[in-house]
Amino acid sequence: MIMASKAKNKISDITRRDIFDTICLWNISWHGRMDEVDFLGRVFDLSNMPSNDPRYSNVAGDIFQHRINNDDWPDDWIFSDRRFNLLYCEDETLLRFLCEMLHPRVRRDDESIKLLKDFNKLLEKDGFRLVARQHISGRPVFSAELIIDSAPAGLIDIQKQFTDADETYVSQQITRIQAALENDPALAIGTSKELIETVCKTILHQRNAATEETNAPLPKLVRATTKALALTPDDIPETAKAAKTIKTMLSNFANLADGIAELRNLYGTGHGQKVGTKGLGIRHAKLAVGAATTLAVFLLETHRERS
User: What residue stretches are annotated with the AbiJ-NTD3 domain (predicted)?
Assistant: First the structure.
């Protein structure tokens, strides 16, 4: 079989080998809960791929013989089989293979989120990322896109702050926001509010400061968090340099939370609107996401620094 020209691909063979190594290192089944033939049939036209065994008409027969009848192929055989040529195939084919690996019909959410994080870390070096564009039963279905505008820096900073059991949940919120920014501004606005709630509740829990305000509306929740972090205007001594400016900025935290909550109530997901209601545009969603992530990152970094 003639290999695709390396020059046509943006994803290098180095990145591809790193991806394959990651899958093997984790000992994760690339076909998940699906049969190998069924999984590969979602990406390749198996009926037109030759068999290396004269007893079979196509590659599907080979897979059955060596993975089921004899089981004499290694689990990672797909990464070295020249007929599938994942090391040098077109970028589109490799990306589709990876997206199918993350499909909700193939594996659980927790595995998908973990793989997504590592796949994107490697793919971004060559200008690609996998993003959720659709949902099935509330679970993300991923597709690949070229990186043109980088994701809001705040979203990346927030994800880096979570290294414990909360990471999967936060990753899901961040993935939802990134996917919705261009396609569903209302969802991006609604999820931004949820992200701040998650950050505040996590901080209050980790500082043993959770009270009845933990389940209060967003503005009260933010006030409780700033109080736990000693970030209220009253916590700044008058003798501090630029005390007046700092107090003014801190007092605006509450206004920022009020604005995000109001945007979500009026335009975001979570509340039904009358038929014909005109929603906000992409620029408004970016404003809400930018404000929410700026606040969330500041709270998280203050929490980590003072811990």
Answer: 10-176
Residue pointed to by tokens 């700044």:
236
112: which 2 tokens? 């998908």
CA–CA dist 236, 207 (Å, integer): 20
Tens of pLDDT, residues 252-268: 776 777 777 777 766 65
Measured in residues, the chain has a length of: 307
Q: How many other CB atoms are found less than 10 A from the CB of residue 119? A: 25
Contacts of 296 (CB under 8 A, 6+ apart): 154, 158, 195, 196, 199
pTM above 0.70, yes or no: no
DSSP three-state, residue 130: strand
Range in 120-129, 144-153, 220-229, 295-304 with the lowest mean pLDDT:
144-153
pLDDT score, position 62 = 95
Domain boundaries, the chain: 11-148, 182-270+280-305
Q: Does an H or E element contain 37, and which?
A: helix 36-40
The pairing of beta strand 128-136 with beta strand 139-146: antiparallel
User: pLDDT by residue (tens digit) across 78-98?
Assistant: 999 999 999 999 999 999 999
Residue 21 tokens read as 């190594």
- Distance between CA 151 and CA 130 in Å, rounded? 12
Which has more confidence, 107 or 287?
107
Element at 134 (helix H, strand E):
strand 128-136
- Angstrom distance (rounded) from CA 62 to CA 73: 10
How far apart are the C-alpha atoms of 143 and 139, rounded to whole Å?
A: 13
Q: Helices (H) and strands (E) in the chain — how many of each?
A: 11, 2
159-194 burial, b at 16+ Cβ within 10 Å, e below that, comes to: bebbeeebbeebbbbbbbbbbbbeebbbbbbbbbbb
